[in-house]
Amino acid sequence: MKSRRLIQGVLLSIVALVLAGTIIVFIGYRRITRNPEVLLDLVNDEADMQLNKIRQTAMKNGIREWRLEADSATLLEKKKTMLLANPEVEFFMDDGDHVHLTAEQGTIYTDSRRIEVSGKVSANTSLYRFQTDAVDYDPAARELRADTPVTLSGESFTLNADTMTMNLETRITRFEGSVEGVISEDLQL
């Protein structure tokens, strides 16, 4: 008999907590939707602008250099940066090929158009794919640089290195530090 009352008490307490939680969430939601100023208080205090689902294209002399999409962006005008969540960047090359790069976060330096991305960085071209922890894009040199260990793989090879520099105009990629690789006998040069 006591255990039955105990179970009923516990169940009644759980139902009361769930009901109270539902009411609190409902009241909070109504407060935010009726008072947008409350929602603005939640935005980064340093942010001059916060955007969701952004798309940006960089052009130089009428030629597309890169196109970017991100889940969100926070503009910090004083720091001359734009913080990105889940950026995807497509870098265009002269021969029509492109590098499609994804990461967990990124930063665009608005004064120089330099881009840094980090967190599970993955990029691919029509011929190969590379993975690393962080990549910087230097628009003056049109280079992608990875100063963290990188793995490059293609249909017939895999290459590991400590650093990588990829020139998007010349398509020359340089690897340095503990460079190791496996090349299949099927590789055609």
Would you give an account of this structure?
By secondary structure, the chain is of the alpha+beta class. The protein has two domains: 2-42; 49-183, lipopolysaccharide transport protein A fold (Sandwich). 21% of the residues lie in helices and 50% in strands. The protein contains two helices and 14 strands. It has helices spanning 2-34, 36-42; strands at 49-60, 63-76, 81-85, 88-92, 98-102, 105-109, 114-124, 128-138, 143-146, 150-154, 157-161, 163-167, 173-176, 180-183. It has a six-stranded antiparallel beta barrel. Strand 6 (105-109) and strand 7 (114-124) form a beta hairpin. The chain is elongated. The protein starts with a helix and ends in a 6-residue tail after the last strand. The mean pLDDT is 84.
* Spatial strand arrangement across the major sheet: 2-3-6-7-5-4
The helix/strand class is alpha+beta
Q: In whole angstroms, how far apart are the ends?
A: 83 Å
Number of strands: 14
The CATH superfamily label of the largest domain reads Lipopolysaccharide (LPS) transport protein A like domain
* Overall pLDDT level: 84
- Would you identify the regions where 5 or more consecutive residues have pLDDT less than 50? none
Identify the notable features of this structure and list them briefly.
lipopolysaccharide transport protein A fold; 2 domains; 2 helices; single chain; 189 residues; 21% helix; alpha+beta; six-stranded antiparallel β-barrel
